[in-house]
Queue: 2 jobs
Job 1
Amino acid sequence: MEAASHEDRAFFRDTTRKFLESEVPLAKVRELADDPDGFERAWWKRGAELGWMSMLVPEALGGGSLGGGLADLAIVAQEMGRLVSPGVLLPANVVAAAVAERGTDAQQTSLLPDLVAGDRVATWALAEPEGAWRPGDVRLAASRRGDGFVLDGVKGPVEAAGQADVMLVVARSPEGLCQLLVPADAAGLTRTPMQGLDLVRRFAEVRFDGVCVPGTALVGEWGRAEADVRRGLEIALTLQCAETVGAVDRVFETTLAYMFDRFSFGRPLASYQALKHRFADMKMWLEACHAVTDAAALAVARDAAGAAELTSAAKAYVGDQSLVILQECVQMHGGMGVTWEHDAHLYLRRASQNRALLGTPSEHREEIARLVLDGGAG
């Protein structure tokens, strides 16, 4: 498929934004704060109809994008960030991409149509307790038993684990990493809800006590899935950063408008030189966030050399600068900015949580150093 034109992507962005503003405005997000799932299945299915779950799936398997794959999906992530939208965009698309790229014909036939249509929800179980997120950190054990496999250990936090129908679980076998599709209701699997900062994102700790799955559950090769896991991590980090950038973009936009509407001593706040300097700094940081995230999306979409470094660079920079910008915007609103009624905290919650998940900025700076010292090896 040829890459879409700028006009096509602009139209897609506009359509996605209008849909989100109509279906899940911030008032709806606040309502969903008390919902056990944090999102509505019927709404997610309508989003899937707009292509949210098809962009990392080839046309031959029922998917399709504007031609940019992950770069196109990042548009959706940014727009969802602008309204701190609910849903399972990140984990479900990581699973869809893994099955599309490495799954068997039977797995692709049985799972992908439902994921693309939004009829089933999938999540990716990589992270483990005590902040473990690197492929090398995985300790959940997988062993062979007859024609199948047995899983023992703990995963968490796992996004939408309590809402998912199926999980793609990253485990360690004696031969190396592997990925297995596990039904959420499998015997021996226990999901315990965890508290989080975000109002509509749900996470859980998932315990595997002798969970048995058939041999057909294996995605990719037994003991040789490290490259597949790193590919999933790159996709997840790119979408996470795109979402955060969208959130910061919206808050910066609304704060700037507020500064022109709010008067002090007969002048709009935006007219004060000291505040202009602060906004100039924020705009520079925001544009850099856009640039590094877009670069990461393009590199991962093309499976280019250096994609791992770029995703870690995006995570490190966006993770740090997003909170600096958001905190500045809160301060620009004065006391009103720290109230429950104001929307600023909704964005600060999303960005703070994203910053902590799948590695902190400092951990990703260490990852960049490791990659450079290893000569760019994954």
Job 2
Amino acid sequence: MSGPLCKFFGSSIGKKQVMAVTGLLLCGFLITHLAGNCILYFGADAFNTYAHKLTSNKILLYPAEIGLIILFLSHIVMAIRLTMQNKCARPEGYYMTTMSGRGATLASRSMPYTGLIILIFLITHLIHFKFGPYYETQLNGETVRDIYRTLMEFFQSPLNVIWYIFAMICLGFHVKHGFWSAFQSLGFNHPKYNCKLKLASCLFAVTVTCGFSALCIWAYFKGV
């Protein structure tokens, strides 16, 4: 089995399909993460309760974190390998034509750049929140981390808000093209459904961008 598997993952189609599956799974994580973050609107106790329940169950937390790391790394590695493979395979003239805009969109042409920005954002996001300032609060007689305060303090800086929104705009461009192209890579390519898939990709991108951006804007005006 190792021979055929290695041949599949080494092929262009195999790499694209791995990117498609991991990308769609990460899109599912984005929606779940956004839904959880929206609990922020209900106040400190509600958000800290949600965050505590999410992080206190180590039996589920560690496998989930490992799974996310594997998804991100698989997606990034395949993206780098495909980009390098495409640059080596196509002549310079074709490359210049593609970059000029014919047959391509801003979202598709900027995929490597938006992907890099998202990676930088993820690293800084973990530094600021998961490993950021640690405060404690009481919930039903139990001492838990006050992640609500950490988050609200972070978004009191206009520069942090601007950076966050910029990253979410880049994320929107990335998933707009990625969501649609994932289905293409998996064989869902039919004139009857292509327009609907493109519309769904746009709606998904707008939901993610506006949803996360609204949270940091609300936190900024809400204050600590």
